[in-house]
Amino acid sequence: MAKLTxxxxxxxxxxxxxxxxxxxALAMRLLLKxxxxxxxxxxPACCWAVIPGAMPGTCLKVSTVFSxxxxxxxxxxxxxxxxRRTGRGDVPVVGFAGDxxxxxxxxxxxxxxxxxxxxxxYVCYDNxxxxxxxxQRSGSTPEYSWTTTTPRGLEKRTSKKDMPMILDAHRIxxxxxxxxxxxxxxxxxxxxxxxxxxxxxxxxxxxxxxxxKHDPSQMVEVGRLATMSHLFPLYEIEEGRLxxxxxxxxxxxxxxxxxxxxxFKDLTAEQIEEIQxxxxxxxxxxxxxxxxxKKAVEKEAAPPEVSAAPTPHPAAPVSETVYVKxxxxxxxx
Amino acid sequence: xxxxLLSGNDAVAEGVRLARAEVVAAYPxxxxxxxxxxxxxxVARHELAAEYIPVESEHSAMAASIGASLTGARAFTAxxxxxxxxxxxMLHWASGQRVPVVMANVNRALAPPWNIWVDHSDSMAQRDTxxxxxxxxxxxxxxxxxxxxxxxxxxxxxLLPAMVMLDAFVLSHTYMPVDVPSQAAVDSxxxxxxxxxxxxxxxxxxxxxxxxxxxxxxxxxxDTALAMDRARQKxxxxxxxYARLVGGEPLGLIDEYRTxxxxxxxxxxxxxxxxxxxxxxxxxxxxxxxxxxxxRSFRPFPEEEIRSLGRKAHxxxxxxxxxxxxxxxxxxxxxxxxxxxxxxPPAVASYIAGxxxxxxxPKHLGALVERATKKETPREAWVGVKxxxx
Lengths: 333, 390
What we know:
The complex is a heterodimer.
Chain A: H1 23-35, E1 40-43, E2 63-66, H2 72-85, E3 93-98, H3 99-104, H4 107-115, E4 121-126, H5 163-168, E5 174-178, H6 183-195, E6 200-205, H7 209-212, H8 219-228, E7 234-238, E8 241-246, H9 254-259, H10 269-301
Parallel strand pairs in A: 1-2, 1-3, 3-4, 4-6, 5-6
Antiparallel strand pairs in A: 5-7, 7-8
Helix pairs in contact in A: 1-6, 2-4
Chain B: E1 2-6, H1 8-18, E2 23-25, H2 33-44, E3 51-53, H3 58-70, E4 75-80, H4 81-96, E5 102-107, H5 121-124, E6 132-135, H6 139-153, E7 162-167, E8 176-180, H7 183-189, E9 206-207, H8 217-245, E10 254-257, E11 264-268, H9 272-285, E12 290-295, E13 297-299, H10 303-310, E14 315-320, H11 330-339, E15 347-352, H12 362-373, E16 381-382
Parallel strand pairs in B: 2-3, 2-4, 4-5, 5-7, 6-7, 11-12, 11-14, 14-15, 15-16
Antiparallel strand pairs in B: 1-8, 6-13, 10-12
């Protein structure tokens, strides 16, 4: 019998007000299972500013701070610094923002925090549009996707921002993608992210049946097709080295994913072909990078070809992931 | 207590060090820069046991300060002009979240055209954000106001953020003798921040979740309004306690100079008041009953103090470094409003002066008082404006 790896403890309880079949709701539930009860969540304007319910109700059993739309990463930086300064620095601080709050309005604060290597986990749940305001396009909306601000005649003709790779370019300790339709992989990444220091980034594909225009009952299936088609590959980049964590050996055509959703119903055969070609190219790029970096690791680990008297290898410098030195204790009279 | 020669920015940094701020979020802007530079040095030398977050914008500086304060840490940031304008959204966030963040704002003009000199338009534009606003006349007062701002902001009956204003260059970069209090004296005046509520990992708690019309939103706003009203008394008490425990003269909401029998009262803010003192002395030497009321606290607005001035004077001459287009001088507007309903209210003259660092001398102010002696009290006039030649 398979070993169950997902903790049974629920830190997101009943009573949330998300739409039926909300991928972001499932994402939060799985994420908290990986993070544990001490996590402090920082949530900006997004669907999740509403999903917990109106004050004073909540469906989250963890300490939750709401921030303005663009300031998740800055607020999380301050919370982490404050917790460190008040002797609670070991607590995981987690920004949890939508794609608009991450790729668009929040990218400045996020980039700043990543450059400083602030000690928190930033999670983007990407439902590929401004869903909370009623399905407007964001910088994370895919090419040709229908939204209320990309109607027929005003189609989006640019690719979505590649946020995980943008974060990877900041050389932070951990970047990963996750998909709630693959819960074991998802929770393992949340756990790993929580265990590391410095800025960590988790990019989640969060299906939105309301905005993607399909039956809510198909949420898990549509999410599965995203990864089964290589459109949303599951990978992690640890200390700069990319590893594909799971992939189908025989990918399904992207068309299957696209045709399952009303937002792509106007796509022509040529457009689908174009998307398929791009997905393939990106996938091959990922595979090539993985192979290159794997080779580099093996080379490092290989014994020296010329045998000589073994000299002690100098200890690798421990990367200072937290930029602020611990402060001396404060003495009050 | 030691006497030191400090710039206004140095004095602010000394105040922050003495306050034992625990988190400093910093983004540079002229002429605030030396504040965050001094604080970085203090942290590097372990003179200040604070986390120093070199954020990428003022908006993030305020967001990080709010986050830090929510954990119960004493947070500080500093800005000026464009930086304060960029923070605007988060200023509301700070008061809405009831965090006692203290910030220094070096008053500077807003562009365009670019101008880095003294002007109060930046902070006047933030009057409705729910922040306590204190304007310093001297570098020593800037230091004292940082400490008093923390004391009042952190009071459980207030819990509002506070900003301390100092004039660009006139104070920020001008060296003056400053009485720097001892750490022991400051510790007795300002003990460690004891938050009423703070982020407690592991507990089911919410900070700032949504509140529809029929729930608590309006109640929260009213509570903020009441807290700001209570801040009046708390500021007066803090001024007195500071004088007793730390030193100096007690600072109030307004600072009166030779007003006891004054028929004409000059009303000014910040370093303009220093020039106004010379003007008052000049008139007094000629036996004319002129006094000065320096507005130290713009928020909360000292309505009662203004009314009691109005009961004695026949004219109040407001000179200010800001303008609300389509309305007038923001201070003059509020002074007029405070005086409404007095049996014989004084005439209020409103002068817009010194925008973008344009010089205002005791002589300029003297000419304005002179006009008041002739009962000339314009509804609005601009001082020292050159006619532009095409």
